[in-house]
Amino acid sequence: MSKVQEIATAIENGKVKLIEELVQDAIDSGENPNSILDDGMVAAMGNIGAKFQANEVFVPEMLVAAKTMKKGVEILRPHLKSGSLGKLGKFIIGTVAGDLHDIGKNLVALMVESSGFEVIDLGVDVPPEKFVEALNEHPDCKIVGASALLTTTMESLKNTVEAIHAGGYKDKVKIMIGGAPVTQDFADQIGADAYTPDAGSAASKAIELVS
Ligand code: B1M
Q1: Which of 40, 53, 135, 201 has a CB 3.0–4.6 Å from the CB of 7, allowing a cystine?
Q2: Ligand 1 site-directed mutation target among 103, 149, 155, most atoms within 8 Å of CB
Q3: Which contiguous run of DSSP H or E holds residue 176?
Q4: pTM to 2 decimals?
């Protein structure tokens, strides 16, 4: 089994105590950090999701897999960074109201920060008005990113875009959205400025939006 596959298996099986050592070992052996992230960690979370859907695992297993991935990402974090902090401006990000999933949002935050933005992370279950309050606090913010993982919380994405527009920021900030159930069509429907399918493309799009 390759080191990247070992990492994927450890995440799927929730091996919280093993993950840091496995990730460090893979890095020391010269594995590409992006491959560790995408082919190992993100792929493992996809597998867990498929098993959850098939009733083979349940919420506690998803939670422990998420915890394992988070620990692994912390070891990986310095190896993914490249840009100089904050030079491209501020980027406010959060997972929308009703939604507690934060791994994808955290990865987007990490990649955007690595690209040179200063990230203000509002966390999870963020109501629309909190996005607006954050913009009031940071009027120089260039982009707001909102993440949703549940079909039921896509409505919160719509409410978030509406609240930001109603707050007077329509022409002042760009709104990016993403998350597994989100599509470009949906982004167009709710008036978001950009949709990207993954964290890497979110970072590239953010750079494009401020260039
Ligand atoms: Co939940 N969950 N979950 N879950 N969970 C999903 C999303 C699900 C698809 C599983 C399934 O059924 N196959 C399903 C949603 C079904 C649906 O709505 N269509 C589901 C469900 C049903 C639920 C609960 C309702 C379960 C229950 O309680 N009965 C519940 C809801 C809780 C709530 O939010 N209110 C729930 C709870 C949880 C846990 C708390 C146990 C845990 C989350 C822990 C955490 O995040 N801290 C969890 C997990 C781990 C998952 C799965 C297995 C993995 C999610 C993940 O982290 N993926 C997930 C199944 C799956 O995704 N296949 C599932 C890895 C991550 C890197 O990918 O988040 O998609 P993702 O992010 C990607 C892209 O989407 C994109 O970039 C990221 C990286 O490339 N992206 C953006 C994300 N945000 C972006 C923003 C952008 C741009 C790109 O711009 C701003």
Answers
A1: 40
A2: 149
A3: strand 174-178
A4: 0.91
